[in-house]
Amino acid sequence: MKLYNSLTKRVEELQPVNEGKIKMYVCGPTVYNYFHIGNARTFLMFDVIRQYLKQRGYEVTYVQNFTDIDDKLIVKANELGITVKELAEEMIIKYFEDARALRIKDADFHPKATETIDEIIKIIQGLIDKGLAYIGGKDVFFDTEKFKEYGKLSGQNLEKLEVGSRVEVDVNKKNPLDFVLWKGAKPGEPKWESPWGEGRPGWHIECSAMSKKHLGETIDIHGGGEDLAFPHHENEIAQSEGLSGKTFAKYWLHVGFLQIDNKKMSKSEGNSLMVRDLRQKFSPLAIRLFLMSGHYRNPINFSEELLQGAQRSLERINTAYDNLNYAINSATEDELDLIDKETITKADELVEKYFRVMDDDFNTADGLSVLFELVREINIYLQRERNNLLVLNHLRTAFEKINQVFDLLWGKEEQLNTEIERLIEERQQARKAKNFKRADEIRDQLLSMGIILEDTKNGVRWKFVGKE
Fold first, then answer.
1. What is the mean pLDDT of the chain?
2. Among 8, 65, 255, 317, who pairs with 42 as Cys (CB 3.0-4.6 Å)?
3. Which region among 322-336, 385-399, 444-458 has the lowest average model confidence (pLDDT)?
4. Are 351 and 401 in contact (CB under 8 A)?
């Protein structure tokens, strides 16, 4: 199995620190708002990587944190007139609702920054004792000039790194690139006691502390979005390795940017799309399929047309699987003919191909192509007048093995939603054709299912109100 290491800038063979075991940390959300489609891609792709490693037989311990104390939370909580804790707790609940809708499985540990204060203080004191951190005003800073390898992840040296929008300016710093480990308390902000006075942790130190607490000083894989490589991940390396003298993470993986209609997604563009809003218009499984359709390291472009295409592809996958199961119910186990044997061989080859492409840096784009190749083979075989039970079972086993990580089969809720959308579309076509009798029949059918329709400027929407 090979993966691209952002630290070394090359593809490397996966060799865990401890054979057969993977310790994996991924930067989670800052819980001041719902998460957007770009965040979703990162969270989903690392869950897919985790699940594939498990499929390949690795024992994986997976940690994804919540940043529940931060300037953004303080500002948002003040706007809403609630406490930072109340805001964070509400947004964590909403995170799990949206993530689970996309079938992103929970991490083994979801630590919070506010529950790791003791560990954070201990690390900061250790850095001060080693001369790697200093007190400036009411804050504590990491001295980047004291860590000689600073810049190794971003591939630049201290002289070439410029202070940008993601590097805070502070008169108490010795050097512009020094970063805050502990922020002195300001009036009205959450605060904790420390040897340097009341305050709260900086952003970067949180992840080092939570990773060390749950996974130890050296882990196998550290991941996050491409935008976190500098300065967040760079700073994590400096403070973690500066304290321990050991490699913090052996492999660094970064998910590429997601654009909206070929434009960078940002608040300034006003084009941030929240998963919570998208779920109102599209199947969560269609969103899941779309987000897996590109290699995780490559940028991906979002548009409603692409998501509609993903919905059609999802229906194709599920229809093939449903037809396969239906055929199994009536098939008999006969002697295999040439086509039967060729179909079995083809299915085996596709399973081997799936593992081959996924072993190459978790290439979900090519992995999904293999799934669609198998769907095609299933559809071709089902067109035969005689279906052999042995072949059908072999095809189903191959399908379930390839789909195990992709997880694209409808549950009962998705099936119901798809049927409702199909009926609404049929009703729309009937109305266009002035077949009002059929349109009324469909409306009554939906009503009997507890569904009412609403005409909006964006088209027909439906909601479940329950059966009489």
1. 92
2. 255
3. 444-458
4. yes
| Cis peptide upstream of residue 231 (ω within 30 degrees of 0) | yes
Q: What single-letter DSSP state applies at residue 114?
A: G
Q: Rounded to an integer, what distance in angstroms lies between the CA atom of residue 244 and that of residue 127?
A: 10
Alpha-carbon distance of 456 to 242, in angstroms, equals 58
Q: pTM of the prediction?
A: 0.88
Cβ distance 260 to 271 under 8 Å?
yes
Token pair of 328, please? 């199994």
The answer for residues whose C-beta is within 8 angstroms of residue 381's C-beta and 6 or more apart is 339, 343, 387, 391, 392, 395
Structure-token match 């329950």, residue found: 466
> What percent of the chain lies above the pLDDT cut of 90?
80
Helix (H, G, I), strand (E, B) or coil at 134: strand
Asked if 348 and 364 count as a contact pair (C-beta separation under 8 A), the reply is no
Q: Where are the beta strands (DSSP E) in 114-164?
A: 133-136, 139-142
Q: Under a CB-based contact definition with an 8 Å cutoff, are residues 3 and 362 in contact? A: yes
Nearest C-alpha neighbor of 230 from the set 164, 282, 281, 176: 164
DSSP class per residue in 207-218: HHHHHHHHH-S-
User: Nearest 5°: CA angle at 224, between 29 and 410?
Assistant: 75
List phi, psi (to 5°) of 405: -85, -35
CA contacts within 13 A on the Cβ side of 303: 7
Amino acid identity of 248?
Answer: F
pLDDT in tens, 205-216: 999 999 999 999
Cβ atoms of 236 and 254 closer than 8 Å: no
Identify the pLDDT of residue 468: 44
